[in-house]
């Protein structure tokens, strides 16, 4: 893997253009059928520039995958802060968890980034890092676990294992919604909210202090 370099003035824009071009080509043409020449031409840079930044095509795929994952993680962290930070009243907990879930289903699970991530996993998994080597593999769940631990510290939840609580929450809300409906956009499908509400209530029956 190439050594990370200090970016020159203007280099950040080139790197962003290469990543955007690679993402589009990998999705439309497939990883195996996309060439570094095509990525360079679409990004309007030289082939040498692509190699200077990323070394090879597989490393470029990893960079695209990580960029998408970072965007999704940022959405999770922002939504956790907006909906679940600073809660002290037990009566606020259920509506706050419902609001968090409704926003995640629309802002994350129905986003272009999530679709891209899923397509890469389904079509290019052999070229991606092993799941154990992906820095972002567990990051959203860990972020949720940290928030649940904070709610436990505030006296609202009883959470012996924060990461397990996050896994349970996901299974009861997003997991059920995706399994039942195949999609999870709360703004487009009125069936999403009842599933989310019941999932949150099941979670609270298990974890409310």
Automatic annotation (TrEMBL):
Annotation: DNA-binding region: 35-54
Domain HTH tetR-type, chain residue ranges per copy: 12-72
InterPro entries: DNA-bd_HTH_TetR-type_CS, Homeodomain-like_sf, HTH-type_TetR-like_transc_reg, HTH_TetR, TetR_C_Proteobacteria
Superkingdom of origin organism: Bacteria
SUPFAM superfamilies linked to this entry: Homeodomain-like (SSF46689)
Assigned keywords, A-Z: DNA-binding
Identification of the protein by name: TetR/AcrR family transcriptional regulator
Organism: Glycomyces niveus
Source lineage: Bacteria, Bacillati, Actinomycetota, Actinomycetes, Glycomycetales
């Amino acid at each position: 893997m190439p050594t990370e370099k200090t970016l020159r003035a203007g280099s950040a824009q080139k790197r962003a253009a290469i990543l955007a071009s690679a993402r589009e080509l990998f999705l439309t043409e497939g990883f195996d059928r996309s060439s570094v020449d095509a990525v360079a031409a679409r990004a309007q840079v030289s082939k040498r520039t692509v190699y200077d930044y990323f070394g090879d095509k597989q490393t470029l795929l990893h960079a695209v995958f990580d960029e998408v994952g970072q965007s999704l993680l940022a959405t999770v962290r922002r939504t956790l802060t907006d909906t679940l930070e600073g809660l002290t009243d037990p009566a606020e907990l259920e509506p706050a968890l419902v609001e968090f879930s409704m926003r995640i289903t629309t802002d994350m699970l129905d986003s272009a980034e999530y679709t891209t991530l899923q397509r890469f996993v389904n079509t290019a998994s052999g070229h991606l890092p092993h799941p154990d080597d992906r820095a972002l593999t567990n990051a959203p769940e860990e972020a949720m676990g940290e928030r649940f631990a904070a709610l436990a510290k505030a006296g609202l939840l009883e959470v012996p294992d924060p990461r397990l609580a996050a896994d349970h929450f996901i299974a009861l809300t997003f997991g059920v919604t995706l399994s039942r409906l195949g999609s999870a956009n709360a703004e487009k499908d009125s069936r999403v909210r009842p599933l989310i509400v019941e999932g949150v209530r099941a979670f609270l029956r298990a974890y409310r202090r």
